[in-house]
Here is the input.
Amino acid sequence: MKLLTLLLSLCICSTSFSQRTKDLKTFKHYSVVTNKDTINYHTYAKKDIESTNVLLLYIQGSKAMSLYQTMKENGKTYVGTTLPLDFNLLPDNYLFVVISKKGFPFLTKMDEEFPVPKSYYENQTLAYRTHQANQVINSITKKYPNQLKKVIALGHSEGSDVVAKLGTINNGITHFGYLSGGGNTQFIDFITFTRNKLAKGLISEKEAQREISSILEDFKKIMANPNATDKYWAGKNNSYKRWSSFSEPPIDNLLKISKPLFVAIGTKDQAVAPESAYLIPIEFIRKQKNNLTFKSYPGLDHGFGKELENGKYEKHWNTVFKDFLNWVKKI
Here is the structure.
């Protein structure tokens, strides 16, 4: 029960006795150090970095935790991770890169509490996460100037907003992946989900109006205190500073991207309203931009999984990831 509770607390997690341990040991660890900051990033290559020619930077969502967590119990080692990717799917010529959240080490112990660092809240913004990604890409491409033929930025959830913003400042990226992200401000999702509950008959019109009024009042409080790191909303680790920063509509940034862009949404996403995601192809059509590939995945949720009638849960992340890799290969 102890192990189950710990695993359920992870955002997107998988465990194993061998494969995840192998993946964990394959990572190499680096830092970009400036006068005011240190950005820790980690690389994974099936052979060695010199044998790769495609850089894939994965930008994770909003979970405040380390990339990997381990625990030993009854003589077995369990490995949890917030990275949903199956590294077996990565082509041999890919250099996979991921950045640690500010203040978090690469690895923590699953059964020991790691308090969220103050530095995490202070840098829990769209601007800072975009800065991190830009610095890491520039550092790697500068180190291997003639080696990388493709530079890919792939974001999921909050990370998709980062990818959109990154596309406005980094001209070296050749391909963009935008998974489980909307086109409108994140604020609209909460109103949309309330109206959807009303449409399904789950709440009354009066209840919907009361709920929406309360949400709007919360938004006013957030925007009146946009830099507050000691006030939280919709999650114990989501500060006002985070919400005000990520209230920027991604569509404004996505439309500035001229390179190939892959957007995917699950039609049963419960964190991002699919209606918001459909704004993206609509605006690209309206602006007559033809660099977008948009795919919706019927019945899949925010993490591209599906809850079955028998209570079981199917993971389909690999399906989406394969589609993305095939798209990159063709473009």
Remarks:
- The mean pLDDT is 93.
- The chain has twelve helices and 13 strands.
- The radius of gyration is 20 Å.
